[in-house]
């Protein structure tokens, strides 16, 4: 095939190459390709002139704009440190002072939301409302106290966590361990349910409730108190407020009395800094359940 040969259909010149009867057209490069190549080359040249680009042994071309990425990083770190001055105030100020400062509390909400989501939400839920086996942190029903100091201590040492100063609590298995027979368990379950639902006392189970109170006074009052109000000294829940960790229906209460309970909360002293624990304390208080 001749190099000067033209394609009879398009009129394009041939390159002179032929493969198994297939002839190659000498098609010019599209103008769009030339355009973008030119723009790319121009951009690269301008970038080389304006920005740090070429290494020169121990230094490099600085560019006309004088941009220094290391200096930018140093300034960013310094600015972050200046902005985090609020953290020093949180570490130093008492809880009441921080809660009275709207600006600081906004920082607490921003940082606390991340801390809570990473460490607490898996059990207590993203909104802190808990679930079966996990306390609702917005309800004000505290096992070990809802003051800032009490919450901070619970976060620090945990519950049944193995921490040497940890809080320890256990609900005995009165039925499984045969401390009470089945009739006594049923009676005390009915009485306990009546503490948060007074309408039961005037219903057909009045005699059962009376019998259950006798069982309660002999076996439960030492922890939950004579009126069922609980005790933050030993982590015994209030049985009168209608807030239940494991459920307040008859069957759930029976399961608790019969089989016992022993919840677990990790100790965060070695996992979170003192500042992070204080932010978490303030965040939990801000959820609405602190007192």
From TrEMBL:
<keyword id="KW-1003">Cell membrane</keyword>
<feature type="binding site" description="covalent">
    <location>
        <position position="223"/>
    </location>
    <ligand>
        <name>heme c 2</name>
    </ligand>
</feature>
<dbReference type="InterPro" id="IPR038414">
    <property type="entry name" value="CcoP_N_sf"/>
</dbReference>
<keyword id="KW-0375">Hydrogen ion transport</keyword>
<keyword id="KW-0997">Cell inner membrane</keyword>
<feature type="binding site" description="axial binding residue">
    <location>
        <position position="124"/>
    </location>
    <ligand>
        <name>heme c 1</name>
    </ligand>
</feature>
<feature type="binding site" description="covalent">
    <location>
        <position position="220"/>
    </location>
    <ligand>
        <name>heme c 2</name>
    </ligand>
</feature>
<keyword id="KW-0406">Ion transport</keyword>
<protein>
    <recommendedName>
        <fullName>Cbb3-type cytochrome c oxidase subunit</fullName>
    </recommendedName>
</protein>
<comment type="function">
    <text>C-type cytochrome. Part of the cbb3-type cytochrome c oxidase complex. FixP subunit is required for transferring electrons from donor cytochrome c via its heme groups to FixO subunit. From there, electrons are shuttled to the catalytic binuclear center of FixN subunit where oxygen reduction takes place. The complex also functions as a proton pump.</text>
</comment>
<feature type="binding site" description="covalent">
    <location>
        <position position="123"/>
    </location>
    <ligand>
        <name>heme c 1</name>
    </ligand>
</feature>
<dbReference type="GO" id="GO:0009055">
    <property type="term" value="F:electron transfer activity"/>
</dbReference>
<dbReference type="Pfam" id="PF13442">
    <property type="entry name" value="Cytochrome_CBB3"/>
</dbReference>
<comment type="subunit">
    <text>Component of the cbb3-type cytochrome c oxidase at least composed of FixN, FixO, FixQ and FixP.</text>
</comment>
<dbReference type="InterPro" id="IPR036909">
    <property type="entry name" value="Cyt_c-like_dom_sf"/>
</dbReference>
<keyword id="KW-0349">Heme</keyword>
<keyword id="KW-0677">Repeat</keyword>
<dbReference type="GO" id="GO:0005886">
    <property type="term" value="C:plasma membrane"/>
</dbReference>
<comment type="pathway">
    <text>Energy metabolism; oxidative phosphorylation.</text>
</comment>
<keyword id="KW-0812">Transmembrane</keyword>
<dbReference type="Pfam" id="PF00034">
    <property type="entry name" value="Cytochrom_C"/>
</dbReference>
<keyword id="KW-0679">Respiratory chain</keyword>
<keyword id="KW-0479">Metal-binding</keyword>
<dbReference type="InterPro" id="IPR032858">
    <property type="entry name" value="CcoP_N"/>
</dbReference>
<dbReference type="GO" id="GO:0016491">
    <property type="term" value="F:oxidoreductase activity"/>
</dbReference>
<feature type="domain" description="Cytochrome c">
    <location>
        <begin position="107"/>
        <end position="196"/>
    </location>
</feature>
<keyword id="KW-0813">Transport</keyword>
<dbReference type="Pfam" id="PF14715">
    <property type="entry name" value="FixP_N"/>
</dbReference>
<keyword id="KW-1133">Transmembrane helix</keyword>
<dbReference type="InterPro" id="IPR050597">
    <property type="entry name" value="Cytochrome_c_Oxidase_Subunit"/>
</dbReference>
<keyword id="KW-0560">Oxidoreductase</keyword>
<feature type="binding site" description="axial binding residue">
    <location>
        <position position="265"/>
    </location>
    <ligand>
        <name>heme c 1</name>
    </ligand>
</feature>
<feature type="binding site" description="axial binding residue">
    <location>
        <position position="171"/>
    </location>
    <ligand>
        <name>heme c 2</name>
    </ligand>
</feature>
<dbReference type="InterPro" id="IPR004678">
    <property type="entry name" value="Cyt_c_oxidase_cbb3_su3"/>
</dbReference>
<feature type="binding site" description="covalent">
    <location>
        <position position="120"/>
    </location>
    <ligand>
        <name>heme c 1</name>
    </ligand>
</feature>
<feature type="binding site" description="axial binding residue">
    <location>
        <position position="224"/>
    </location>
    <ligand>
        <name>heme c 2</name>
    </ligand>
</feature>
<keyword id="KW-0472">Membrane</keyword>
<dbReference type="GO" id="GO:1902600">
    <property type="term" value="P:proton transmembrane transport"/>
</dbReference>
<dbReference type="GO" id="GO:0020037">
    <property type="term" value="F:heme binding"/>
</dbReference>
<dbReference type="InterPro" id="IPR009056">
    <property type="entry name" value="Cyt_c-like_dom"/>
</dbReference>
<dbReference type="GO" id="GO:0005506">
    <property type="term" value="F:iron ion binding"/>
</dbReference>
<keyword id="KW-0249">Electron transport</keyword>
């Amino acid at each position: 095939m001749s190099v000067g040969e033209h394609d009879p259909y398009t009129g394009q010149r041939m390159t002179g190459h032929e493969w198994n009867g297939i002839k190659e057209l000498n098609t010019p490069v599209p103008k769009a390709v030339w355009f973008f190549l030119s723009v790319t080359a121009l951009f690269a040249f301008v970038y080389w002139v304006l920005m740090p680009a070429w290494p020169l042994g121990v230094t490099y071309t600085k560019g006309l704009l004088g941009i220094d990425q290391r200096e930018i990083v140093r300034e960013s770190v310094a600015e972050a440190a200046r902005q985090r001055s609020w953290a020093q105030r949180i570490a130093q100020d008492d809880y009441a002072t921080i809660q009275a400062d709207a600006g600081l509390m906004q920082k607490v909400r921003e940082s606390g939301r991340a801390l809570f989501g990473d460490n607490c939400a898996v059990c207590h839920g993203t909104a802190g409302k808990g679930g079966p086996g996990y306390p609702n942190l917005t309800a004000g029903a505290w096992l070990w106290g809802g003051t800032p100091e009490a919450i901070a201590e619970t976060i620090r040492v945990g519950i049944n966590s193995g921490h040497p100063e940890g809080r320890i609590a256990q609900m005995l298995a009165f039925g499984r361990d045969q401390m009470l027979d089945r009739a006594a368990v049923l009676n005390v379950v009915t009485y306990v349910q009546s503490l948060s639902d007074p309408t039961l006392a005037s219903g057909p189970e009045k005699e059962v409730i009376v019998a259950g109170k006798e069982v309660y006074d002999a076996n439960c009052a030492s922890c939950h108190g004579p009126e069922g109000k609980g005790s933050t000294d030993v982590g015994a829940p209030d049985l009168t407020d209608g807030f239940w960790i494991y459920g307040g229906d008859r069957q759930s209460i029976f399961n608790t009395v019969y089989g016992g309970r022993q919840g677990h909360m990790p100790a965060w002293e070695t996992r979170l800094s003192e500042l992070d624990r204080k932010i978490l304390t303030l965040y939990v208080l801000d959820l609405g359940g602190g007192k």
